[in-house]
Structures
1.
Amino acid sequence: MAKKVRKHRKNRGSKTCGWGSKKTHRGAGGRGGRGMAGSGKRAKHKKISILKEFGRAYFGKKGFRRPQKVLETSKMINIGDLDFKEGKVDLTKLGYTKLLGKGNVNKKYEITIKLFSKSAKEKIEKAGGKITT
């Protein structure tokens, strides 16, 4: 029995090596290759102009983005929105997670909350109150 010649060996020399379009079967999906692929030979003029304008940082992937901690906006409250009598206020029992510093404080509060901004703490302490976690 004659030994069968492999497909990739048989098609060497042809433009597409038996995979249809030039850009198919690169192992990078339909995006035209990886890195600087596609920017040379027939498009070298494009590569040079991009490098002149933006530098080498234009091509390729750069690092990664760390997922940020997301706080729901409905669980935040501004100082200006506080409409309680003077004294102790437990905002965690009311369902709030963070106290923000927008607005003014005229009353003396003792607030219990998990998170708060610097400006919120300063304004409450200036009015004679305090924040506890």
2.
Amino acid sequence: MRMLLTGFDAPVEQAMYVDRRIIEHDLLQAIARVNRKRLGKECGYVIDYIGLARELRAALTDSEEGAEGGSRPSTGIDGVLDEIPRLRDRHQKVLDVFRSRGILDLIPIDPCVDLLEDVKIRAEFLNRVQAFLASLAIVMPRPEALPFVRDAKILGFIAKVAANLYRDNQLNLEGVDRRMKRLIDEYVSAQGIDPRIAPVAITDIGFLKQVKRKKNSRARASEMKHALRHQIRLRYDEDPAHFRKLSERLEAIIKQLKDNWDALEEALRKFIDEELEREGKQTVPGLDPRLHAPFFGTLKEAIEKETGAELKSDDPAFKEVIDLTVATVDYIREKIRMVDFWRDEHSRRSLEKSVYRSLLRSGKVARDKLEELATRVVEQARNLHRLLVWGNGKHRD
């Protein structure tokens, strides 16, 4: 206690047990010191054996460090009591996310999770559940908090399932009070989900096996749909031309088979099988599918927009674009091997100018479009830096 009062070499304590009377400045100082934060410690606890409520109120009233502009510390006794009506209000508001849309109970959670597919509703839910959990953390462990604990666990479970399904990390509620997080994680674990394990990617060998465990075709189709969307978003910048077409094809399937869950499940399973089979296979002769094909897609798309016609594989221009792609990518690979290349703005601009000149010499794209295309190719190289630097470079048959 003496160290907490003097501050001399005082450790960062989690709890202070008070069994003698302290008043005024000494009381406030002791509470402030035990309430100091550190990594993994958001607050401290005062266990009062003799009843210090009167002394604490007097100290807060007399202190020159009292609330400015009408605010007051929420950690005091009055602050906790004032938080209870706010807790009730925030509890109602988070429940209204579902009730206002016809879902009157949190159990079963499936309708709630389905509702959160809408990004705007998901953002509304996230804001309200975080506010609710923040208030609950302030009131706990007082008995007034107990009626809200069950819903806190279920709402956290809904958030976790939605986070996995929609690949939305914000719904993992990482920023909430650690006691709330522990409460929710224990409940989630009891439902058979390990909160520490991220959802399985479609490229994982066990993805379709996990999908099969879902209880019905709607759940299975939903899992595949959102996993595919996430994979496309994740890799879009690596190969915009390919993943734009992939996205358009996926959304067309979803729109065509909307609410026909059996057919949608079958179509999405076939979609995934085809994409996994295509991944890493040579689709354009003379090009490495990982190193060169993404850039070929970008250049081919730009040239097709310029000419207004699709390049066919038997067209002489098709072979010219292949050669242009190989030359451009091999030149980029050589330049970006320099340590911290992307941090050097001069080096990046120099690379863009070189790519620009190479494209200009090819005569495939109008001059007024070349600067934007060169910038896009270099940005694509940045997104594929690791592959370009460490790839095997075996691109010829």
3.
Amino acid sequence: MKRLSVCLLLCLAAQAATGPLLSVEELVDRSAIIVHGRVARSWAAWDGAHKYIWTHHEIEIVDPIRGAGFAPLVVSEPGGALDGVEMRFSGALPFALGEEAVVFLYRTPVGYWRTQGKYTVTSRNRVHANLRGASLTMREDLPLAEFKARVRDMLRRR
């Protein structure tokens, strides 16, 4: 089985997780969709040009904070393993089956919803920042309800 490891910086949009440092306020401003959800399943697939592998995560919506309803949503991150090929991309945020998180999403040029910010919900019902390249203006380990209230307050003020 052929195995290929590729390390690339994929700059799909200015809002990418490896892009400029983003405050929570900027994440709110730049995200078309913000949801609190749970990962129901994940799978890897080639893009339409069969050039890059993307890992897709079906998110069951617990709370549609902005721009989404309760229908499951697919979040895609570049990279993954498929057909004996493994690709890794700087800035791709990992997701685990059953993981619960508040995610800040933008639409990529290829049409996928991609994460630019992710706050994992811990077993103690608190949020833990899981961001690469983002500055934190809210302290970590904030109660989930308080975090979502602050995000909603930011949305109301804009």
